[in-house]
Structure formats: C-alpha cells, structure tokens
Amino acid sequence: MIRVELAAMLRRRRTWVVIAMLNALPALVAVLLATTQLGPRPGSGPPFLSAVLSDGTLFPLAALGIVLPLFLPVAVAVVAGDAIAGESQTGTLRYLLVRPVGRTRLLVAKLVSVVAFVLVAVLVVAVVAYVLGRLLLGDGDPSGTVTSVSGSTLSQAEMIQRTVLALGYVTWMMLGVAALALLLSTIVESGLTAALGTVAVLIGSTVLLGLEAADVLQPYLPTRYWLAFVDLFRDPIRWTEVVRGVAAQAAYLVVFLGAAWANFGSKDVNS
Questions:
Q1: What is the C-alpha R_g of the chain?
Q2: Tell me: the pLDDT tens digits for 19-70?
Q3: What pTM did the predictor assign?
Q4: What CA dihedral angle connects 114, 115, 118 and 124, to 10 degrees?
Q5: Per-residue pLDDT tens for 82-99?
Q6: pLDDT of residue 98
Q7: Quick one: which of 43, 56, 124, 194 has the most CB atoms within 10 Å?
C-alpha cells in the first residue's frame, strides 16, 4: 500500500507542477541578483539573501528563507489536504476501504506519501538553488570558508554539516503543517477546503506572532520557530530555539496525527 501511494505521488503531474512553482520565485530572485548586483542590506530580507552576491553557494539557504514563510507550507497543505479528502470527494475512498486494507494502514500510507513529498520538495529547492547560485552568483571564497551569521569563519565541512541539519530542520517544520492538513483532510470532503483551512491557521499564527498582546501564546504557535534554522549558522550554534522548534513540531505531530487517526477510524465513508 505504501509503495502504491509513493508511486502515485511521484507519477502525479500535480506533484511536479507544485515543486516547479516552488522553485520559480528563488530562480527569479537569483536572476535579478545576478543581473543587477543589488542585494538587500545585511539584516533585511530573507535569511542569507544579503550574502549570496559574494558567495553563491549560500543561495540554497536563501531559497529556503524565501519559500518557507508562505510557498512551501501552502504546497504541503495542498498535497496533504488532498490525501483523504480528495479520495472522498472523487468517491474512491469507499472503494479503497472495501479492499482488505485497514483504515490505519491507509492513513499511514497517505502520511508516508506526504512525508516523501515534503522531503522531495525541500531537496529539489535546495539542489536547484545550489546550481543557480554556483552558475549565476559565483563560488565565494576559493578556500571554501564561509562567514557565519555571527561573523566567524566556518569551514566547508562545517557548512555542509550545518546545511544538512538545516534541510532536516525545515523538513521537520513542514511535517507539522502536513499533520494539520491531514487531520482536516479526514474531517472535510474537499481537498481545497482542507488546504485553505490549514493556510488559515498558519496565517493566524503569523499574525499573532506580530501581536504583543499574544506574547503568552507565541511559544506554542506553529510558525513560531520556522526560521530558527538560521541559528545553526551562528558560531557557536544557538540550540535553544532549534530544540524548542523540534519539540513544538513533535507535539503538533502527536496531537494532529492522533486526532486524524481517531477521526478517520470512525469516519462514515458512505455519508
């Protein structure tokens, strides 16, 4: 069942259209930076974007900073929101459950498919951005060293290790979004409705993060720690926000996936 869902996800045209759209804005930004040589001032704009004119190998991190606040979570919400609700909307869910496939097994297969999409999307964005950065913005210091966010020098090996950690961290952040969308997908019968509901929650979270009166809620908001991957490129690494982000998303995964399993287990597919 899992193999079938993974194959279907990879063959689906929507998967690659969404991933292509994710890469469109970073690609446009890379072209504009390369042709104008005008970048944002340090400390303004998406993380690392001010540094890519002098080191194009940092563009994967800048690309993640570009797509993470909006485009990547929307893409994850669209795919995960359609996982169950799409089958229900087209009338194929009841036929899937007629086969000797338990509901838990089907939900797990859908979840694995969504996780695979998140991994593929993050990796493709990073790889495409790396190629564009090298081609359009240059290789940076010939020695391979990179200046960290805190101003110290990082070796090429350290940058590779921290970039891998950052990719894993961003992927983990998006799994919380996927879990929420999957929960809504078991409640409603329209993939679009599930995706819009997820996006509405994320927008609400972002608004509350900018509201001083919501200080007491901010540590628990789903978007609170998304950009904490920047702390991985300080020297020394500031682990506090990173660890809190990992823990918060783990809690969201447990709550949302548990609720999705409970709801889907009692869902009337004939209604």
A1: 20
A2: 999 999 999 999 999 999 888 887 777 888 888 888 888 999 999 999 998 9
A3: 0.90
A4: -110
A5: 988 887 766 666 555 555
A6: 54
A7: 194
User: How confident is the model over 65-79, as a mean pLDDT?
Assistant: 94
Q: What is the pLDDT of residues 155-214, one digit of tens each?
A: 888 889 999 999 999 999 999 999 999 999 999 889 999 999 999 999 999 999 999 999
232/238 Cα distance (integer angstroms): 7
In DSSP notation, 108-157 reads: HHHHHHHHHHHHHHHHHHHHHHHHHIIIII----TT--EE-TTS-EE-HH
**Burial (0-12, 13-18, 19+ Cβ within 10 Å), 223:** buried
By CB neighbour count within 10 A (0-12 exposed, 13-18 middle, 19+ buried), where does 68 fall?
buried
The DSSP bridge pattern shows strands 146-147 and 153-154 to be antiparallel
Q: Which two tokens stand for residue 150?
A: 């805190």
Q: What number of CA atoms fall less than 13 Å from residue 271's CA on the CB side? A: 6
DSSP state, 58? Answer: G
* Sequence-distant contacts of 138-145: CB under 8 A, at least 24 apart: 138/54, 138/55, 138/56, 139/55, 139/56, 139/57, 140/54, 140/55, 140/56, 140/57, 140/58, 141/55
